[in-house]
Amino acid sequence: MILAAGRGERMRPLTDRVPKPLLEVAGKPLIAYHLERLAAARVTDIVVNVSWLGEMVRTRLGDGRRWGVRLHYSEEPPGALETGGGIFRALPALGGDPFVVVNGDVFTDFEFSRLELKPADQACLVMVPNPPHNPGGDFSLGNGRVGENDVSRLTFSGIAMYRPSLFDGCEDGVFPLAPILRRAIVSGRVAGLLHRGIWRDVGTPERLAELDDYVSKRSAG
């Protein structure tokens, strides 16, 4: 699942007319990089949640065949449902097996094939070194387990694998993901991986411009 329903308030005015997933980096929509990497990892059925300017996303991406994948769309109301609510609404389309989720507004070279879940785990989170805009980090990572220690905290990349059972007891509506993850962390059922490669949170016009310059120079080189 690619999370793509947000309004992108921090990206305004760019997102007033273009939905955040379609903002371009080196001449290509941001979301296309995810589609390429997911296809390379043999993830062929992908759900994209849509809300703000959702019809533009549908029109641009179509059924996904140009990337070798099958796209399914999960509709959300104006204002979207936050991360937890968005994933929960998409569960019927995601099926009963563990599934990968990636934020639509990150850029990364993470290999999605690295994600796996042990039988007792409900989630596996990809963690990254803390960027300047999140110096305190989100969770700790030790011996492949995610915790909430106050030392050695890392940043959650927005990339993960979840079991549908993580959302047991939830109801359709607007709710965040973090409390659900913390509940699973307390019960010792969240694994983690550290990714030291490329990862950028494209959260502001300035970061988008920096990423565009970075990727364009890498492509030219």
Give a brief outline of the structure:
The protein is an alpha/beta fold and 221 residues long. The protein has helices at 30-40, 54-61, 82-94, 178-186, 205-220, and strands spanning 2-3, 24-25, 28-29, 45-50, 70-75, 99-103, 106-108, 123-128, 139-142, 145-147, 153-162, 190-194, 199-201. The chain contains 5 helices and 13 strands.
Structure description:
The protein is α/β, with parallel strands linked by helices and 221 residues long. It contains 5 helices and 13 strands. The strands form 3 sheets. Strands 1, 4, 5, 6, 8, 9, 10, 11 and 12 form a 9-stranded mixed β-sheet that branches. Strand 4 (45-50), helix 2 and strand 5 form a beta-alpha-beta unit. The longest helix is centred in the last third of the chain and has 16 residues, at 205-220.
